[in-house]
Amino acid sequence: MTEELLFKKIKHAVGRAVADHGLIAAGDRIAVAVSGGKDSYTLLHILESLRQRAPIRFEIMALTIDSGYPGFRTDIIGGHLKEHGFEHHIEKTDHYGIIKAKRREGSSYCSICARLKRGALYELAQRFGCNKLALGHHLDDFAETLLLNQFFVGSLKSMAASMLADNGVTTVIRPLVYVSEAQIIEFARLKSFPVVCCRCPACGEADMQRKRMKRLISELERDIPHIRQSILRALANVQPRHLLDKRLSVPPAAPVDGALGEPA
């Protein structure tokens, strides 16, 4: 697939997500979290293309958190964004020092690091007058997160395309919800994005459970070609009466002709 055709496909998917979930409104100022990875670069460039041609006016800027891991190349990220004319802020933190002090031996860096980064991003979004924070989670992330919560937590939970953050002020949006990781990998390759590693000591080894879910979905995909899309559709097609959570109990509806019932 050519770069132009893939760009159009991803842009169309993001535009559909924006329309389906009301992700962007006139007057929004959106902070895009840019880590230097393929997902965040793709998100930033696609949103900028949409912004330039949108019938409404909104603004975007990029935010990068430097967690203090030795060797993290913020200069590469900054150089790329400057070359393309993006407003960009890099926030230096001592997250690495905090993690080393608080992490229990044998536990993962990821959960503590994610919480610290998210809190910093919320604060920065407010500081720079952004009412929304865009994150680069894609279709595969949504599917894997659902399975992770089912298998390891015992919860029917994934992610939302749009949600109010815990600070009660910032709205978190995930415009890549309809875009597959495979599309992003190919797009990043064609665009030659300068991808940088966060330099976390556990980079490449952490989150083994998520990697197991990724492998499981890939194996199932051999027999179920559209499994990722089916899982995503399931997240938007919840049937509360057919679950065990009593908080979701609803009165029975009138029978619908032709509807499928329980097996005989």
Mean pLDDT: 91
CATH topology: Rossmann fold
Which structural class is indicated by helix and strand composition? alpha/beta
Strands across the major sheet, in which order?
3-2-1-4-6-5
CATH architecture: 3-Layer(aba) Sandwich
Distance between the termini: 48 Å
Put simply, the count of helices is 9
Radius of gyration: 20 Å
Strand percentage: 5-15%
Number of domains: 1
CATH superfamily: HUPs
Shape: globular
As a percent range, the share of helical residues equals 40-55%
Tell how many strands the DSSP assignment holds. Answer: 6
Low-confidence stretches: 256-264
Biggest β-sheet, characterized? 6 strands, mixed
> CATH first level: which class?
Alpha Beta
Please provide the ordered H/E string of secondary-structure elements: HEHEHEHHEHEEHHH
